[in-house]
Structures are given as structure tokens and as C-alpha cells.
Design a protein that fits this description.
The complex is a heterodimer of chains A (about 325) and B (about 350). Chain A is of the alpha/beta class and about 325 residues long. Chain A is built from twelve helices and 13 strands. Chain B has two domains: about 230 residues, no CATH class; about 80 residues, 3-Layer(aba) Sandwich (D-Maltodextrin-Binding Protein, domain 2). Classes of the chains: A alpha/beta (about 325), B mainly alpha (about 350). The interface between A and B is medium-sized, with 32 and 29 residues. Bound molecules: adenosine-5'-diphosphate and magnesium ion (MG).
């Protein structure tokens, strides 16, 4: 029985999963997950470490067996259509390791040999801008180059669907942008991407839709814009008080234009609709309480704020 | 490996990849190719026919020791020397002398009967002293010493060393590369492609065969040059036996490594499976010494089959038909181990 009823949506669904569950002993890694990725979109799983992103994506990739739930990828199922399915998928694992003693082109050629169709070795290397490293051993590449090679191995078959698990973790800003533009080009050619990340800016920049995950569940789902505007406040004001003095959040929450106020490690975070109204009122209030500011910043609300609003915690605990 | 844009069949690409990884690991090349040669050289020298090795005798410093020493020294094949009373037991223990003579009438021989060379030395010393004391031989036996090529211990030893080498390098090189790839999660990445798992495992065995010729050729060439060890059977038959042996141990190596998660666990299993064969499969001494009930098991072991077949071909000039049973045993090991590995292999 197809998981999605209507024929037009079935054609449009690259990944469908229902009631996905996976546990490791007492740890519930994935706790009943439903999601649907449309063909041609870039779909992000955003969540902190341990949220269950890798477990989820590896089940979708057919590398892990779920305890319960249904998975359909490109209209096919794991266990019956594996070979056909693998021909059409591109996969980059979290911390992909490749043969260190082989050169870049040898690795790409090896991976290319597993697939019936796809670009030539040279074309793949051009795509990921590794031509100059063609003869270098994998073990001698920088982190960013290794990551691009991992993506190259995922692209050797012109996949219909690309899975990326934390593609830019640990990369410097320039390498991250290089990879982002590579993925943009893949999208522009009609490819579908499912990626995991714990960087909210990555999800916001790359993804058409984002599922925010925490403790094996999806706690929010939508386009980055939808998710942010669901906060009802598109800006955030953050400040700290001199010498870490206490300030009453309930008083702050009553200021005009403030929808929420919390204190987190000495920093007060206000979610606000209109910063230009809130800030003068805030300054007056602090003066009335004879408190001195040590720091003040405002920014547009991000997916991070969405995560904080749902869980009370930050994406990255550092 | 210049700019080849079109890949070959995955089996060939996987084999090439494995070979490249191997030759780019100089240490691995050393342990697989050079080290066995060094071992063969050392063992060959240690076990080569020693010709007329003398008997070493110690004479305790006491009254009459000079006469005893003189009598012994006159006898052929005996090297006698004086030893101080406090050094005697040490010299015996360390093998500097094989027997100690305490002069007297009659003299006393001190020796360790558990050492065959000591028992021999005792007999030689006794004969020499009896003769010196006036005993006449009833007859002098004729002697025929074996120095014919093909019947010496070294001739028997080299095929065993070759078999042991084929076993060791086959198992270590395949086992390590597989477990290394598993711990680095290269296997997991490969399992995420449509790569045929049989191709991957076969490639490990094929890559092994490429260096087999080099390794076996070096050892045999060396044995022929240094010790004139003969190869009486045809080179084709010998190659066939070597190939089957390499496949059998390649399969066993895969099997042993098919589930190990760490290099340490894999080494443990390797040693566990190889050690019994070092002992019972007739590398250094004949497996015929083991009790009859054990013989069927010993003969079913791949190293026994390989050593027996190598000896038959090299020393007795056996034809393929004559080593058919051993070949069948080796083939069965290869096929069974490979099939089981394919089923139980752990990719993550
Ligand atoms: N092989 C495993 N054995 C035991 N627990 C695991 C295993 N893999 C993951 N987990 C646990 O499952 C949870 C989710 O892990 P993971 O899917 O890797 O999260 P993420 O990728 O979001 O960081 C974590 O609590 C993790 O410790
Ligand atoms: Mg992860």
C-alpha cells in the first residue's frame, strides 16, 4: 500500500516516512517520526547533538533498520529494491572516511565504477573544485577538501536524491560557503537534498523546509520563514547587566512589544516585534531600577530562537 | 594511474584500489614480502645439514682429568675441555657442553637425558673412554651418510616454510585491511553504494594473488640458490597448489576478519586459528608424530594439505592427480570460508 494516496503527491514525494522508531537499549534515538520530503526541495533536519538526526537519516539511507515505522524512498522500499535504489541515491555519512592512501581521482573512479550512469571522473572533480588535488592522497587533504571529496563520491551517479549528514561540521567559513554553493548548483539542476545540521544558519540559508528535531521527535516543521514568524516576534534583543545584577523578567515581559523574556547564563533575551519601540522603553525601565547595561545587541529572530522557544535550550551547548 | 576517465568493472577497480593501498604502505610490503625471506634465511641456516658436528664434552677438574681429556681429544668427533667444578652445571645447562665427565675408576657421566644430543654425547664419550681403556671393537660398521639433494632436512623444511608463509601473509594482509577499513568506516561508506559485496570480498583475495607470485618466487629462488633445494614436479602443478593454498588462506583470513570490530580482536582470532596449524601441520617436524586419532583432523587442516602437496610436488615430483586430495581440501576451505564470510560479514 502506498504511503501517500493521491498520485500527484506520490510523484512529488522523494521520501516519506511514518511512525519511525529506533531505540538503542534504553535510549530512544527516534521516537515516532513522520516526514515527507518533496522532490526538488532541500529539506533540513535541524537539531542539537543527540537529537536523533543521524539515526533518522541512516534509516532513510537503508543503512540502519528501524524498530517500527514505514519508509519509502523515491517510491521504493528498503529490503526489496535495494540495488535499484542505491543506483539513484547519493550519500555522505557523518565523518565519511575514505581510503587515505588513494588519490582523489582514484577514490572518485572507484566510486564511479559502482554506478551505471553518471558524469566522468574529471567532471565530478570540476564540480567540487578538486581538480588541482586530483593526484593528492586523501590523507593529505584539508578538512574542507575531504568534505568536498565526500560530496563528490555522493555525486558520481548524478543522484536523484542526495543525503548529507552534517556536511559542514568543523569546516572554516570559506569551505562552508564553497560547499553551500555546490549544493545550490545541485538543486538548480533539479536534485533533491535531505541534510542534517546543527547550524541554524546553514538550515536557514540552504533549506526550503526545516524539521527541528529534539530527543527523537520533530518539534517544529516548516519553511524557515514560517517557523520564525510563528514566534510572533521576528526580532530578538539581548542584553546583560553590569556585575551580573538580577533583573525581573516578569517586569520586562510587560514592556510594550515584548512577547517573551528569559534569562540564560546572565544574558537576558527578549523576543520583540518592534525593536525601535522596545529599546527606549527598556532603557527607561533599567534606569528606573538603577541598573547599568554591560552589553546590548539586537538581531533578527533565527531558527535558534525557534528552538529556544520550543525547548528552553540552545542548539549548541558550548 | 594517469587520467583514466572510464572506470573498469568494480571488481577490477576494487582490486586495483586494494593493491595501491598495499604498495603505498611500505611497512606492509616489508612484513609481507621481505620479512618471510629473512625468517626463511634464518631458519634455513639454523636447520641446514650441519655436516660432521662434533660432540662437546666437559671434563671436571680433578685428579686424572688431564688423561681423560687427552683420551677424548684423540677420539674423532669429540671436543673435550676442562671445566671448573663451580662452572660445570652452568656449562651443561647452557649447552656449552653436552655431557660432563667426572674422572675416576670408573668415571661418572653427568648429563640431562631429556636432551637427545646429551644422550648421543654420553654414548660417544663412553665408547672413546672404553677404547682408551683397552676395549677392542668386535667390528667396524660401514657408514652411509645422506647428503643427497632432496633428502636433507632443509629440503623437507623449505616447503613447510613456504606453506607457513602463504598462510601467514594471506591471513594477515586480508584480515588487517578488512578490519582497518571497518574501524575507519570505509566499509560502511562502500555498503551505501550499489557495490556488490561479493566483488569487494573477491577483490581482497585477487589483490592478494598479485603479490603471491613475487613472494613465493623470492622464497623458492632463494632456497634453490642458497641451499639447492630441488623442484622436481612441474612449475604448473606447483603454481596450482600455491594458488589453491593462497585462496584457502585468503578465505580463512576473510572469515576470521568478517566480524571483528578491532584490530586487536582480529589479531587474537588470527593467532588462535594459525597457532594450532604451526604446531600440527608439519612445518618444522612431521605431523606423523601426533597420535592416530588426531590424524584425520590434522589432515583436514588447510596447512597440512598445503604442506603435504608442496612437499609431494617439490620433492617427489608429484603430478596434479597425485595431489588431488590435498587440492580438494584446499579448494573446499576456500569456497566454504568465502561463502560463510559473505553471509556473516559485518559492514559497519
Ligand atoms: N550505535 C549506537 N548505540 C547506542 N546509542 C546510540 C547509537 N547511535 C546513536 N545512539 C544514541 O542515539 C541518540 C541519537 O543519536 P544520533 O542519531 O547520532 O543523534 P544526532 O545525529 O542528532 O547527533 C543519542 O542519544 C545517541 O547517543
Ligand atoms: Mg549526527
Amino acid at each position: 500500500m502506498p504511503l501517500v494516496g493521491a498520485p500527484d503527491t506520490k510523484r512529488a514525494a522523494a521520501v516519506v516516512c511514518r511512525g519511525l522508531q529506533k531505540r538503542y537499549g534504553d535510549v530512544v534515538a527516534v521516537a515516532g517520526l513522520d516526514l515527507e520530503v518533496r522532490a526538488g526541495e532541500c529539506f533540513g533536519l535541524l537539531g542539537p547533538n543527540g537529537a536523533g538526526k543521524t539515526t533518522t537519516i541512516e534509516i532513510l539511507e537503508g543503512l540502519l533498520k528501524q524498530d517500527a515505522g514505514e519508509v519509502e524512498v523515491l517510491g521504493l522500499r528498503w529490503g526489496t529494491d535495494d540495488r535499484a535504489l542505491r543506483q539513484r541515491l547519493g550519500i555522505q555519512l557523518q565523518d565519511t572516511q575514505l581510503q587515505e592512501k588513494l588519490s582523489v581521482e582514484e577514490v572518485v573512479r572507484l566510486f564511479r565504477s559502482f554506478y551505471r550512469r553518471g558524469p566522468s571522473v574529471g567532471d565530478v572533480l570540476r564540480m567540487v573544485e578538486l581538480e588541482s588535488k586530483r593526484r593528492s592522497w586523501v590523507g593529505k587533504l584539508s578538512g574542507g577538501q575531504k568534505q568536498r571529496l565526500a560530496v563528490a563520491c555522493a555525486l558520481v551517479n548524478e543522484p536523484d536524491l542526495l543525503f548529507l549528514d552534517e556536511p559542514t561540521t568543523g569546516l572554516d567559513p570559506q569551505s562552508r560557503r564553497q560547499l553551500w554553493s555546490l549544493l545550490d548548483r545541485f538543486r538548480a539542476d533539479g536534485g533533491t537534498i535531505v541534510l542534517t545540521t546543527h547550524y541554524m544558519d546553514e538550515a536557514q540559508t540552504l533549506c526550503d523546509r526545516v524539521a527541528i528535531m529534539d530527543q527523537g521527535r520533530i518539534i517544529a516543521l516548516g519553511t524557515p520563514r514560517e517557523l520564525i514568524s510563528s514566534l510572533g516576534a521576528e526580532h530578538a534583543v539581548e542584553f546583560a547587566i553590569d556585575r551580573g545584577a538580577e533583573v525581573s523578567t516578569s517586569l520586562l515581559a510587560q514592556l510594550p512589544g515584548v512577547t517573551d523574556a528569559r534569562v540564560d547564563a546572565g544574558t537576558v533575551r527578549l523576543r520583540v516585534t518592534e525593536p525601535h519601540v522596545v529599546i527606549p522603553a527598556l532603557l527607561l525601565e533599567l534606569e528606573r531600577q538603577r541598573l547599568q547595561l554591560s552589553q546590548l545587541a539586537t538581531h533578527q529572530a533565527t531558527l535558534e530562537d525557534v528552538f529556544v522557544a520550543h525547548t528552553g535550550r540552545h542548539l549548541r551547548d558550548e | 594511474m594517469s587520467r583514466r576517465e572510464r572506470p573498469y568493472h568494480p571488481l577490477i577497480e576494487l582490486t586495483i584500489a586494494r593493491l595501491l593501498e598495499f604498495v603505498r604502505e611500505p611497512e606492509a610490503v616489508f612484513w609481507v614480502v621481505v620479512f618471510p625471506l629473512v625468517v626463511a634465511l634464518a631458519l634455513g641456516i639454523a636447520f641446514r645439514t650441519k655436516g660432521d658436528e662434533p660432540v662437546y664434552v666437559g671434563v671436571l677438574e680433578a685428579a686424572g682429568s688431564a688423561e681423560v681429556t687427552a683420551a677424548l681429544t684423540k677420539a674423532p668427533g669429540i671436543q673435550a675441555r676442562l671445566v671448573a667444578r663451580d662452572r660445570a652445571d652452568l656449562a651443561l645447562r647452557d649447552g656449552e657442553v653436552q655431557v660432563i665427565v667426572l674422572p675416576g675408576t670408573p668415571p661418572t657421566y653427568r648429563f640431562d637425558p631429556a636432551r637427545p644430543e646429551s644422550k648421543l654425547a654420553r654414548l660417544a664419550v663412553d665408547a672413546a673412554l672404553q677404547r682408551a681403556a683397552g676395549r677392542a671393537d668386535r667390528f667396524t660398521a660401514g657408514e652411509e651418510t645422506i647428503e643427497a639433494v632432496g633428502a636433507r632436512y632443509i629440503d623437507w623444511l623449505i616447503p613447510g616454510l613456504l606453506g607457513m608463509n602463504i598462510m601467514g601473509t594471506g591471513m594477515w594482509s586480508i584480515g588487517f585491511s578488512v578490519v582497518w577499513a571497518r574501524t575507519r568506516r570505509v566499509l560502511k561508506r562502500l555498503a551505501a553504494t550499489p557495490m556488490s559485496r561479493r566483488d569487494y570480498l573477491l577483490a581482497q583475495m585477487l589483490a592478494r594473488l598479485v603479490f603471491l607470485g613475487l613472494e613465493v618466487g623470492a622464497l623458492l629462488g632463494f632456497a634453490a640458490l642458497a641451499f639447492s633445494v630441488p623442484i622436481r614436479g612441474s612449475l604448473w602443478t606447483l603454481s596450482g597448489v600455491v594458488l589453491l593454498g593462497a585462496l584457502a588462506f585468503g578465505g580463512l583470513g576473510l572469515l576470521v576478519a568478517s566480524r571483528a570490530r578491532t584490530i586487536e580482536a582480529a589479531s587474537g582470532w588470527m593467532n588462535f586459528s594459525m597457532l594450532p596449524m604451526w604446531v600440527v601441520s608439519g612445518v618444522f617436524f612431521s605431523s606423523a608424530h601426533f597420535p592416530a586419532p588426531m590424524q584425520p583432523f590434522i589432515h583436514a587442516l588447510p596447512l597440512t594439505a598445503l604442506n603435504d602437496a608442496l612437499r609431494a610436488v617439490m620433492l617427489d615430483g608429484a603430478t596434479p592427480r597425485e595431489v588431488g586430495a590435498e587440492a580438494a581440501i584446499l579448494g573446499a576451505w576456500a569456497v566454504v570460508c568465502f561463502s560463510i564470510s559473505l553471509r556473516i560479514f559485518r559492514w559497519k
